[in-house]
Automatic annotation (TrEMBL), chain A:
InterPro entries: ORMDL (IPR007203). The chain crosses the membrane at residues 20-42, 101-117, 123-140. One of its GO terms (cellular component) is membrane. Its main location: membrane. This is ORM1-like protein 3. It holds the Pfam family ORMDL. It is a multi-pass membrane protein.
From TrEMBL, chain B:
Gene3D superfamilies: Aspartate Aminotransferase, domain 1 (3.90.1150.10), Type I PLP-dependent aspartate aminotransferase-like (Major domain) (3.40.640.10). Keywords: Lipid metabolism, Pyridoxal phosphate, Sphingolipid metabolism, Transferase. It is found in: Endoplasmic reticulum membrane. It catalyses: L-serine + hexadecanoyl-CoA + H(+) = 3-oxosphinganine + CO2 + CoA. Its main location: endoplasmic reticulum. This is serine C-palmitoyltransferase. It comes from Eruca vesicaria subsp. sativa (Garden rocket). Pathway: Sphingolipid metabolism; Lipid metabolism; sphingolipid metabolism.
Length: 154, 489
């Protein structure tokens, strides 16, 4: 089964890989397989496994999308050094399809994790905190906003 | 237009995700490790920002032996590749004194001028003895010899423009001349897959840059219409100048630019056309005059024609050809002309002699033979690779053919397997190409004989089977069976 890949107009090599076909599927498959991995390693209930996946997903994506700034290579002469990955994708345009997809995934993970743990504490508290931070970080109004100067530039 | 098998796309993302995850883990463990050791550089700022060289340290260095291989002979059809070894898992590579003779599929030696040539080399040696290797001066001080003047006239005649200016370095031609031609208040519309030299020149000029979808004249027209209607950012005044920058052959795709459509659109909207013919001059067209000759575009319609001498002419340097007024203006304003050392005189002589061979002015028809041979070789090689089931990019007649690899692990596997069989190929990955689309780029030369190409095909086919890059079904060998049945009858 083949897909066609049209070259994009995005010059930022750090973010243009997200516009090619197959990214969304890979993302969802990674989440599903990590759930299976956690289940097989920790011998826990499915709910706890989903909670672990949700919190790990929160840590990893918060760090790589909203904390790390710039690009992992030096060819672009540092023009993106003040922008996090989330602020770089789609050239800064808000509410594109990719951004909407990336906002929906943590919410869906939260719903699955809460449902499978039967809304018990302390999992519910941790999950809610995680999804709250994730979704607020992705609001269009938070573009280039640094609260209290956290993660600001020197 | 690249066709990827879906499973390959998903597995490529997985692989890169795994590589990045392992790179991050190693970075964190290095951070913890270094907590306990003190460094003697107190008070000094770090040379690179923390994550700027992440890709180089954690991904590129792992397969460093596939890139930057030193050679110890002229880049002919066969080349001596120096052997290297590493004691610390490719972090540092040490050269040995041994070298292996390999078939050269990586050099831009399109017409075979990259090694000893019976007409050019004696003239170059004579010029070396008469003039010396370097002029030791910029063009305006004492760096213009009679050879330089002859070269500029020769290039202008060859390309089909009234005048030309020559600089000592191809990359610097783009990055030093684009800022002179256009500045703040101007608009540069460049193809999305343009070379880094054009991107650097455009960024250095201070003009606004917009990008249009690769080789899509319809999108170019849309972008032009939009930008002309909007005007300059914030003030919305009309643009001072609009320049559209395209390349003749795109070096990573092997595609030929759709020049007739682009030129007609630019004429309609009164934008200037800047054509970078680095890979197409001397390699395509009936007399090698590049993409304008191949596609039948009048050279008077292309405002600025730029090219380099490093690919088809076996020398160094670049040129800009245009109207007499444009070249006069550049001679007064271009920093590459005013301050940079002029092109080395023996190299200039090499270019003049190469152009004379191509045009047949040396009294033989070797030039026409070379051009016919490179066309024949490119078409044969591309057709054979596609029959074997590889995904090969590029148009017919283009001597650049990238074979798609996709997965990051296949990049070093393909390269090392080919080197084991004494074929030297160039593999390219991220960030020179998009993340997903790693490729092995083959450059065919007029000096490759039919036996060389057949050997290359055999080796590439074997390496392709081992790495699993034959993404398309191979063409069935029906004709041989039919011949057999007819013979029996």
């Amino acid at each position: 089964m083949y897909v066609r890949a049209l070259p994009t107009t995005d010059v930022n090599r750090n973010t243009e890989w997200f516009t090619y076909p197959g990214v969304w599927t890979t993302y969802i498959l990674i989440l599903f397989f990590s759930w299976l991995l956690v289940l097989s390693l920790f011998h826990c209930s499915p709910g706890i496994a989903w909670t672990i996946v949700h919190l790990a997903h929160f840590t990893v994506t918060y760090h790589s999308f909203h904390w790390k700034k710039g690009t992992p290579f030096g060819d672009d002469q540092g023009i993106y050094n003040r922008l996090t990955w989330w602020e770089q994708i789609d050239n800064g345009k808000q509410l594109t399809r990719n951004r909407k997809f990336l906002t929906v995934v943590p919410i869906v993970l939260y719903l699955i994790a809460s449902h499978t743990t039967d809304y018990q504490h302390p999992m519910l508290f941790l999950n809610t905190l995680a999804v709250f931070v994730m979704v607020v970080a992705k609001f269009p109004h938070m573009h280039k906003v640094r609260i209290f100067g956290i993660n600001g530039d020197q | 237009m690249i066709t990827i098998p879906y499973l390959t796309a998903v597995s490529t993302y997985f692989s890169y995700g795994l590589l990045f995850a392992f790179g991050q883990l190693r970075d964190y463990s290095r951070l913890i490790f270094d907590w306990w050791t003190t460094s003697d550089l107190h008070g000094y700022a770090p040379i690179c920002l923390a994550h700027e060289d992440f890709y180089i340290r954690r991904l590129y260095h792992r397969i460093q032996d596939c890139f930057g291989r030193p050679i110890s002979s002229a880049p002919d059809a066969w080349v001596d590749v120096v052997e290297r070894f590493s004691n610390d898992n490719n972090k540092t590579l040490k050269r040995t004194t041994k070298s292996t003779r390999c078939l050269n599929l990586g050099s831009y030696n399109y017409l075979g001028f990259g090694s000893y040539d019976e007409f050019c080399t004696p003239l170059v040696i004579e010029s070396l003895k008469k003039f010396s290797p370097s002029t030791c001066s910029s063009r305006v001080d004492a760096g213009t010899t009679s050879v330089h003047a002859e070269l500029e006239e020769c290039v202008a005649n060859y390309v089909g423009k009234p005048a030309a200016i020559v600089t000592g370095m191809g990359y610097a031609t783009n990055s030093a001349i684009i800022p002179v031609l256009i500045g703040k208040g101007g608009l540069i519309i460049s193809d999305s897959l343009n070379h880094t030299s054009i991107v650097n020149g455009a960024r250095g000029s201070g003009a606004t840059i917009r990008v249009f979808q690769h080789n899509t004249p319809a999108h170019l027209e849309r972008v032009l219409k939009e930008q002309i209607a909007e005007g300059q950012p914030r003030t919305h005044r009309p643009w001072k100048k609009i320049m559209v920058v395209v390349e003749g052959i795109y070096s990573m795709e092997g595609e030929i630019c759709q020049l007739p459509e682009i030129v007609s659109i630019c004429k309609k909207y009164k934008a200037y056309v800047y054509l970078d013919e680095a890979h197409s001059i001397g390699a395509i067209g009936k007399t090698g005059r590049g993409v304008c000759e191949l596609l039948g575009v009048d050279t008077a319609d292309v405002d600025i024609m730029m090219g380099t001498f490093t690919k088809s002419f076996g020398a160094c340097g670049g040129y800009i050809a245009g109207s007499k007024d444009l070249i006069q203006y550049l001679k007064y304003h271009c920093p590459a002309h005013l301050y940079a050392t002029s092109i080395s005189t023996p190299s200039a002589q090499q270019i003049i002699s190469a152009i004379q061979v191509i045009l047949g002015e040396d009294g033989s028809n070797r030039g026409a033979q070379k051009l016919a041979r490179i066309r024949e070789n490119s078409n044969f090689f591309r057709a054979e690779l596609q029959k074997m089931g590889f995904e090969v990019l590029g148009d017919n007649d283009s001597p650049v053919m990238p074979i798609m690899l996709y997965n990051p692990a296949k990049i070093p596997a393909f390269s090392r397997e080919c080197l084991r069989e004494n074929v030297a190929v160039v593999v390219v990955g991220f960030p020179a190409t998009p993340l997903l689309l790693a490729r092995a780029r083959i450059c065919i030369s007029a000096s490759h004989s039919r036996e060389d190409l057949l050997k290359a095909l055999k080796v590439i086919s074997k390496a392709g089977d081992l790495t699993g890059i034959k993404y398309f079904p191979a063409a069935p060998k029906k004709q041989e069976e039919e011949k057999g049945t007819i013979k029996l009858d």
